[in-house]
Amino acid sequence: MLESQLQSFARSRSLPAGLSERARIILSSADGELNKSIAQRLKLTNATVGKWRMRFIERRIAGLYDDVRPGKPRTIDDERIAQLIKTTLHTKPADGSTHWSVRSVASETGISKTSVQRYFQLFGLQPHRSEGFKLSTDPFFIEKLRDVVGLYLSPPENALVLCVDEKSQCQALERTQPMLPMGLGYVEGVTHDYKRHGTTTLFAALNVLNGAVLATCKPRHRHQEFLGFLREIDKAVPPELDIHCIVDNYATHSHPTTKAWLASRSRWHLHFIPTYSSWLNQVERFFALITDKAIRRGSFTSVKQLVQRIDHFVTHHNANCQPFRWTATADSILEKLHRLCSRISGTAH
């Protein structure tokens, strides 16, 4: 039993290297190898080999571990650490600042900046950061959530699920100075000022099954343009398939003209996401992709050039498209929402 444990220590790649080395010393000694020979083979001193052999004789396996080494005693006790955490989490600086910094909380508590930094990292405190959130006020939030997530996780047969939305106010911005190319040791440089040459609205429908996108740019963002885009979708989708369309609550999507057009076509089914829940619409992920890769860092001398860049990006995207995999269930989203509400229920809001 003892030998097998030592062999396991000697072969291990996850244990500290020193512990594995000491196990090899003991195993070699058990085979009758002399201390001098072991020291030469493992590139150690005779004293080191003798030390670990003696430690093993006295305490067996426990003797191979390092002893706890004495160090400088702590200068910050638990009460001061607790006060540091309480100050950071539950108070604001007296100068009117919205949050603590390392230096300000160090001055307030009398703890050094280095120690504050270390305790912030240890307890995961990041007072300099914040994240945005928005709770939906839709009275039918749960019903709409389960409806949309159900389409993602279990789409109906003989039907196509499309995520449809518009990215309005896509600006054709021309940089006033040439961009500085990226080089070794420095990033691409883009001037902050620009000339505006107009805007366009990008209408897009994302196929949940394969990630392909049907997109078109229109000069305005009204129910007429939205209805025209629905007609394009209707022509592109085979007539034998039903169309389940996921949209947000923008007024053009529920305009009387749009409703009348949908009512006359039985294969169309609109599914509205809850208010303030654009994260439920997968086409928003495509909008983030095209903004990051084709629009934000571009320079366009006209709206026409911007539209050409968008069309070019969509064409290449569809040639190698992959679907966005939706894995979250409605229950897991509701549980996360419950945790969020529990965290903010004690605030002054």
Automatic annotation (TrEMBL):
Signal peptide: none annotated. Gene3D superfamilies: Ribonuclease H-like superfamily/Ribonuclease H (3.30.420.10). Residues 161-306 form the Tc1-like transposase DDE domain. It holds the Pfam family DDE_3. Coiled coil: none annotated. It comes from the Bacteria. This is IS630 family transposase. The lineage of its organism: Bacteria, Pseudomonadati, Pseudomonadota, Betaproteobacteria, Burkholderiales.
